[in-house]
Backbone:
């Protein structure tokens, strides 16, 4: 049963420390999204990639957040330095976009179980 | 800007149909309507999507108005396990910025 895998599931760290969250998208998917969820803000889109290239990262605080896809099987979200306001659940989602004769066929997004980050 | 509007909460009696509305009055011709749900703090789960026609799968039915400005997700026989937050979202055919709004918190009551 294919699924999106995120690590770590839980992370507690102190303010100022670097945090790296990892996501393994479903094999063959070409689109990866990073979301952050808090009670106050709900699900916020941070960044997304197509074929490993970043398409939009306007939702990320640029000074401390960075997102990359070193290869097709790994997406990373890094926070340096972390702050208490970064405490949230971070979700990764992957999907497959295919183009046939100029028409895009989108499928569903598959979400991981999330990485719960607590910054003290 | 989620560009969809949903009621913040709804109740439904167990065994009855749950009808969850969504307004997407500014939807463009190439945008699908997608529905997801999130149970507790799990990752959102896909339910169903459609472009123009009504759709049905093993989980739910999706009714889209003829003008495409609104839709309704129908859970035909709600169970306690359907208690969740339901998100209606618009997705262009090229996966451009999938935005989630606050959703509707559905409570299925015994």
Residues:
């Amino acid at each position: 049963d294919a699924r999106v895998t995120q690590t770590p599931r839980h992370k507690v760290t102190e303010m100022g420390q670097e945090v790296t969250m990892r996501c393994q998208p479903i094999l063959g998917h070409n689109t990866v999204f990073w979301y952050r969820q808090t009670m106050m803000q709900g699900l916020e889109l941070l960044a997304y990639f197509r074929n490993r290239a970043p398409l939009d990262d306007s939702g990320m605080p640029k000074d401390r957040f960075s997102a990359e896809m070193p290869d097709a099987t790994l997406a990373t979200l890094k926070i340096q330095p972390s702050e208490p306001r970064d405490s949230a659940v971070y979700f990764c989602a992957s999907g497959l976009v295919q183009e046939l004769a100029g028409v895009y066929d989108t499928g569903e997004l598959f979400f991981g179980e999330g990485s719960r980050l607590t910054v003290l | 800007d989620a560009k969809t509007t949903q009621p913040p909460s709804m109740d439904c009696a167990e065994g009855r149909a749950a009808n969850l509305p969504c307004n997407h009055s500014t939807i463009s011709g190439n945008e699908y309507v997608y529905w997801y749900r999130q149970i507790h703090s799990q990752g959102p789960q896909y339910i169903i999507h459609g472009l123009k026609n009504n759709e049905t799968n093993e989980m739910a039915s999706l009714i889209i108005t003829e003008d495409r400005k609104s839709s309704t997700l129908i859970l035909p026989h709600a169970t306690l396990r359907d208690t969740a937050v339901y998100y209606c979202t618009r997705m262009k055919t090229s996966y451009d910025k999938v935005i989630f709004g606050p959703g509707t918190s559905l409570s299925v009551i015994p």
Q: What stands out?
A: Chain A is about 0% helix and 60% strand. Residues 68 and 76 of chain A are 5 Å apart (CA to CA). The first strand of chain A starts at residue 5 and ends at 7. The two ends of chain A are 36 Å apart (CA to CA).
